[in-house]
Amino acid sequence: xxxxxxxxxxxxxxxxxxxxxxxxxxxxxxxxxxxxxxxxxxxxxxxxxxxxxxxxxxxxxxxxxxxxxxxxxxxxxxxxxxxxxxxxxxxxxxxxxxxxxxxxxxxxxxxxxxxxxxxxxxxxxxxxxxxx
Amino acid sequence: xxxxxxxxxxxxxxxxxxxxxxxxxxxxxxxxxxxxxxxxxxxxxxxxxxxxxxxxxxxxxxxxxxxxxxxxxxxxxxxxxxxxxxxxxxxxxxxxxxxxxxxxxxxxxxxxxxxxxxxxxxxxxxxxxxxx
DNA sequence: CTGTATCCGCTGAGATACTG
DNA sequence: CAGTATCTCAGCGGATACAG
Lengths: 132, 132
Known about the structure:
The structure is a homodimer. By secondary structure, chain A is mostly helical. Helices cover about 60% and strands about 10% of the residues of chain A. Chain A contains five helices and three strands. In chain A, strands 1-3-2 form a three-stranded antiparallel beta sheet. Chain A is globular. The relative contact order of chain A is 0.10. The model of chain A has no long low-confidence stretch (mean pLDDT about 90). At the A-B interface, α1, α2 and α5 of A face α1, α2 and α5 of B.
């Protein structure tokens, strides 16, 4: 958070529901797969196995868990079609779509400043160590 | 990320340096203490022990580690004054300040949609389980 | 096809004690 | 004051196997 005042967090209180909630959202953004899945679903609904193919690096377990969390938070809707074999479609909710603007802004900041960050890291690493 | 195209991530490649970098930034934002520390430093430089007092819940170890990471990424500058006892001031860099806009946007999104999220979670939890 | 259940190693993070 | 060094434990996340 930048200005805590702007958020109604004048004096930091880690116990307040508001702070907990904000922190929760930030952690969801920081989690390994959530943002990527939301980004993919932003282009349209996908079936479970489509997502697996589009994200080869994810394990089945983590795909399931991540989708469950997103569903629980109301960002993604899950629609089961009980055919045989079964079919499950995942789709971004309105809330899920609304998350995209701020997240995209952050991602663009990241892309824009990647060189600067890499340079700072390189400088730090060479300056401060010869770690063994 | 919302539109991967907008980021130059047309087809997802987890190995690409760009994707790694964006992911790294998102994880820094999601990390437990980084954003809070950046928010506090946004109001002005602080000494190590001032930060400890302003964030009672953080351990000395995590404060040190978090500040080191932020310094490594070029978001925070560390200034040692070798008096006795020593004095160390932490301050946001220009890059650190520039991170605030997108992060604040995200935090404001979170605050705005907190009720909606809580409601979705409650619905999910009551609908899907009586976990024992 | 779409999951759930298990096992398991790695890392994150707290508590505590010690140092310049 | 401002750290570093250990120890420890819990939880994330991968691999694999099984189920509806």
